[in-house]
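fyi for ur records
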Amino acid sequence: MQDLLNRLNPRRLLMVSVAVALLTIALKTSAWVLTGSVGMLSDALESLVNLASAIFGLAMVTVAERPADEDHPYGYHKAEYFSSGFEGVLIIAAALGIIWTASHQLFDPQPLQDLGWGLGLSVLSSALNGLLAWVMLRSAARHRSMALEADARHLVTDVWTSGGVVLGIALVGLSGWLWLDAVVAIAVALNILREGTRLIWRSSRGLMDESLEPQLRHQIDKVLAGFAHHRAGAVIVRFDHVSTRRAGQRRFVSLHMHMPAGWTLGRAAALRTSVEQALMSAVPGLRATIELLPSDVEAHFDDPRDLK
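which gave:
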């Protein structure tokens, strides 16, 4: 399984997601045509969102993989956050469309037909989405891909959506209460509306240079503590002004390393190289920027004189 996840990078998985979205659209549209269920229609509309999201996600992942250049010295990694935000907007638009359609059907329910075939096609599409979402979530964690995670979580929502639709239509068939179909569709829309809002919020947080997760910051602090030197009760090597941020798959940390003023530049640079290598080994995808300062020199930020 690990070998498979290594081969399936974000671009390849999003290509698979496009193909699966096309297949599930065909399956769910057929289910809607056969049954006439507005719940099935809402499920098919969400699959259209899956397709658009996968295509846009693929485009943004392709952009994010571009190497750094003169205009973008830190790379294009943040492009993945646009994919997540775009997907959230599409989900909200689909949810509002479902609510509009289902609200009319609620007061004028129509009889359903061929429930067996419709339910079978819906269950098959859900199984495909569930399997793909499981693989994508594991790969997203491995590659630290926001675009891949957003698409995977949307697919998970789609699975729950299809499950609710199947349950609602089954209850309609057992009870004969046709209005249940529209109620299920509205409930599905509210659920995906919540997921869309969540994706937009996560995307906005990423674009605002959010700091690293607490467990990763703990790893950084642990590495720095291992390099801090003490002699006769005095600290001769210390670190401060540690700042972290995330940008797509890339992670950054900047800090000051203080040492005795009498050290040679070669000795100070050798220690800095060791600290950088240790940090990047402890936190995958980390890029460290370390400024060297004498022990008796302090750097001051946000000085009122600098803000004038």
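The chain has two domains: 2-207, 214-307. thats all i got for now
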